[in-house]
Amino acid sequence: MSAKIGKLIVFLLLLATGMEAQLTLKSIPKEDVVIVTMKNGEQYHGVIVSNDAKNLVLKTEVAEITLISSAVDDIEPYNYNSRFNYSQRFYSKYFFGQSSIPLKKKEGYYQNTSIILNSFSVGITENLSITAGLELLSTIFSRNSAYFVGPKFGFKVSQETYASVGALIVKIPNQEVTIFSYATLTFGSKDSNVTVGAGYSVLNSRFDEELAYNLSAMHRFSKRLALVTENYFLPLSGSDDVVLGIQGLRYFKRNNVFDFGAIVFYDTSFTQFFIPFPYVSYARAF
Asked: In this model, does residue 20 exceed pLDDT 50?
């Protein structure tokens, strides 16, 4: 009996210690809590107890941990407010298109789509980012690459409202350069948001007078999963407008994300509908 009582006392002491640590952290002003990013991509949030050339001691919600100072990559204020432990780092993109939320300076990611398309996105300033990509099949078989470059300028309008303007410059082998210019608005958080946009294109030196529209959304419903949809409403002369969309699921960790979806294509009168085909991509933040 005494052994059981002893185990119960130890359990209660551990529980009380954990509750005390959690209450202590939550009682500290929010501006004192930081997020520590390690060079291997791992992140911790808590309050700095001490920090010197050798070690950084951080008080988290469950314990006091010691990190090697030389392995720390960045320390910044922890201003994330959600039911998840951390914000996903791929808030600026859907499948291929982007939201209005700007990448931070020097923040970015590499993306591979269906093996053949490789691209990079990086924040040049706190508002300006550049995306560039190369398609591999044409490079390998014709030595005449298809590529694209896209600058975007995004900014915060108000709480959970963002706006952006940008362009996408595309060069396909044996074709003239095509330029898409656009403006978008994003409503919501980095975890769940909706983006609406409109744009014009210039193809073969001709300006398309009809607007194309975009409607995309993302909803994170668990620590690792989010639903993603990306849709483009494209005008066609003399026929119904067509919709090109990607619908699917996102699985992510702190610095990696896998997107799985289906590409669908149909006209707005629903008289023509093409069989969906799969979309797969991988991205890594840096």
From this structure: no
* Residues 153-199: tens digit of each pLDDT: 999 999 889 999 999 999 887 778 889 999 999 999 888 999 999 99
CA dihedral 13, 15, 18, 21 (to 10 degrees): -60
Write out 4-62 in H/E/C secondary structure. Answer: HHHHHHHHHHHHHHHHHHHHHHHHCCHHHCEEEEECCCCEEEEEEEEECCCEEEEECCC
Separation between Cα atoms, residue 32 and residue 110, nearest integer Å = 32
CA 84 – CA 78 distance, rounded (Å)? 13
29 vs 27: CA distance, rounded Å: 6
49 plus 166 within the same structural domain: no
Domain count, the chain: 2
> What is the chain's mean pLDDT, rounded?
83
8 and 145 share one domain: no
What span, in angstroms and rounded, lies between the C-alpha atoms of 133 and 171? Answer: 11
b/e string for 68-101 if b means 16 or more Cβ within 10 A?
Answer: eeeebeeeeebeeeeeeeebbbbbbbbbbbbbbb
| R_g of the chain computed on alpha carbons | 24
Q: Which structural domain, as residue segments, surrounds residue 161? A: 108-285
